[in-house]
């Protein structure tokens, strides 16, 4: 089955179970300052869980655009290194707002995954985790569904804080949360890794495909767990991961959609399509960047815009590593639109805009990228030990526009680490300089705004942190 067919089958299955099909919401969360980007299907339903909003339905299903590149769920640094993490992915979900609870949720998930009419997965490849003391879920799985105890795992709060377990899901530091049960797929003994909870769980053999969360609490800012008005269900299954399973491949990058993006990335860069991690990073990043721009984010020096800038620059650096000459990233948008434009019309509608924004950002960064890399090489030659000092990280950041995670990415490839406290000290010193400079009316690190008539005089400063838009009073 192709990914587009799997997406459709999921939505149809839950429609047959009385769910209303709801379109994906924007990647920019509406009215939720606690969230950087939409990171799960449940975000747009947050107020339904909290009982603050009533809709015409109590069951919903969706395929939601998600970005996990900052905030509580941040996978940026995993991308290119694991088989299963993307910055952008689609989350298939079914939701109950005070309607059904654990029993139906578990039975639906099992039916969709294993029934011949639907995905027809072999039952003995599926492993199940439940929250440590959730006997109710454990009993439904073992006594009703018939999963043998040998493939059931209880996961507790073993991360040093209450409710810090992988089986207690929370959208962020505050908001709806609850115990969950997760379904893993065993990709086979040839791949290194162990079942969840085992010492080898970080391997890629057992891959988490679907999380079913039993929403029961609202966590407040002071850590209090208030019961929700009604027990609810929120589930999420990564479309790319379940596609890999159904297409009999191991890594997400081998699925139909990514094959085409990898090919297009290699053509744009002018390198071989040989599975290099950097190529995967590029193929991954074109999705998050394009979708973020389509939803209205623009590269900038703060907040969401800075996260976008970091992702674009990371992609540029990986392309450069593969030998790209000149701007290449914006060229991959065409292939992305061909792959995903039917399901997400915003890509088609905004193709030209996305390409313009990417090209502009690439050209701007190209001016300092090569130079910054050269400087870094020189510094590394003289490096004593394995820690890149704070002043080097700062110089790359401030003069050459290298976001810290980009420098960290390079460090990781060479088994080096960063002196982050040292970098923070340099940043603080710079803020101090800026504060004293602002006495003279110039704080070069912030957008300079002047009241009254203004005239845009162009991009006045291409210092590493990006361009600074200067508006002068006429
Ligand atoms: P993992 O442990 O693999 O990082 P997770 O536990 O953080 O995943 P959840 O928050 O439970 O993920 O999200 C629900 C589902 O969304 C996961 O079971 C997985 O299928 C999918 N998913 C989560 N993060 C990613 C990602 N970065 N890329 C692709 N799919 C993802
Ligand atoms: Mg995760
Ligand atoms: Mg997990
Ligand atoms: Mg999970």
TrEMBL record:
Residues 1-474 form the Alanyl-transfer RNA synthetases family profile domain. It comes from the Bacteria. Its EC number is 6.1.1.7. One of its GO terms (biological process) is negative regulation of DNA-templated transcription. Residues 344-386 form a coiled coil. Belongs to the class-II aminoacyl-tRNA synthetase family. This is Alanine--tRNA ligase. It comes from Azomonas macrocytogenes (Azotobacter macrocytogenes). The gene is alaS. The chain holds residues 1 to 474 of 875 of the full protein.
């Amino acid at each position: 089955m192709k990914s587009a067919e799997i997406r459709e089958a999921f939505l149809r299955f839950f429609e047959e179970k009385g769910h209303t099909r709801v379109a994906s919401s924007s990647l920019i969360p509406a009215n939720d300052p606690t969230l950087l980007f939409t990171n799960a299907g449940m975000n747009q339903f947050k107020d339904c869980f909290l009982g603050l909003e009533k809709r015409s339905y109590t069951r919903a299903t969706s395929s939601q655009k998600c970005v996990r590149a900052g905030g509580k769920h941040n996978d940026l640094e995993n991308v290119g290194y694991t088989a299963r993490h993307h910055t952008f992915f689609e989350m298939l979900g079914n939701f109950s707002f005070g309607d059904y609870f654990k029993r139906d949720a578990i039975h639906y998930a099992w039916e969709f995954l294993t029934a011949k009419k639907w995905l027809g997965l072999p039952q003995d490849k599926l492993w199940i985790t439940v929250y440590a003391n959730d006997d109710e879920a454990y009993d439904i799985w073992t006594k009703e569904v018939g999963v043998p105890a040998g493939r059931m795992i209880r996961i507790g709060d073993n991360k040093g804080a209450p409710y810090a377990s992988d089986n207690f899901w929370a959208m962020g530091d505050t908001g709806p949360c609850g115990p969950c049960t997760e379904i893993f797929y065993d990709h086979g003994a040839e791949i290194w890794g162990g079942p969840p909870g085992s010492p080898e769980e970080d391997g890629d053999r057992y891959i988490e495909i679907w999380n079913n969360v039993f929403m029961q609490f609202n966590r407040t800012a002071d850590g209090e767990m208030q019961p929700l008005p009604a027990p609810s269900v929120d589930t999420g299954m990564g479309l790319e991961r379940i596609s890999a399973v159904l297409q009999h491949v191991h890594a997400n990058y081998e699925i139909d959609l990514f094959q085409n993006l990898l090919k297009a990335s290699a053509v744009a860069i002018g390198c071989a399509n040989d599975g290099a991690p950097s190529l995967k990073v590029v193929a991954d990043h074109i999705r998050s960047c394009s979708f973020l721009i389509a939803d209205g984010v623009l590269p900038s020096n703060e907040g969401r815009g800075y996260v976008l800038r970091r992702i674009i620059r990371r992609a540029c650096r990986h392309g450069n590593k593969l030998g790209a000459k000149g701007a290449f990233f914006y060229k991959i948008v065409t292939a992305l639109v061909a792959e995903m434009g039917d399901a997400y019309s915003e890509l088609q509608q905004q193709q030209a805009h996305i390409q313009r924004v990417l090209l502009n950002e690439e050209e701007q960064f190209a001016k300092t990228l090569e130079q910054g890399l050269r400087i870094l090489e020189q510094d590394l030659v003289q490096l004593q030990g394995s820690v890149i000092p704070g002043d080097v990280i700062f110089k790359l950041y401030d003069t050459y526009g290298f976001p810290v995670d980009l420098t960290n990415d390079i460090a990781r490839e060479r088994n080096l680490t960063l002196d982050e406290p040292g970098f923070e000290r340099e940043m603080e010193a710079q803020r101090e300089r800026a504060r004293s400079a602002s006495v003279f009316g110039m704080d070069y690190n912030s957008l300079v705004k002047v009241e009254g008539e203004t005239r845009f005089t162009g991009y006045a400063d291409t210092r590493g942190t990006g361009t600074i838009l200067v508006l002068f009073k006429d």
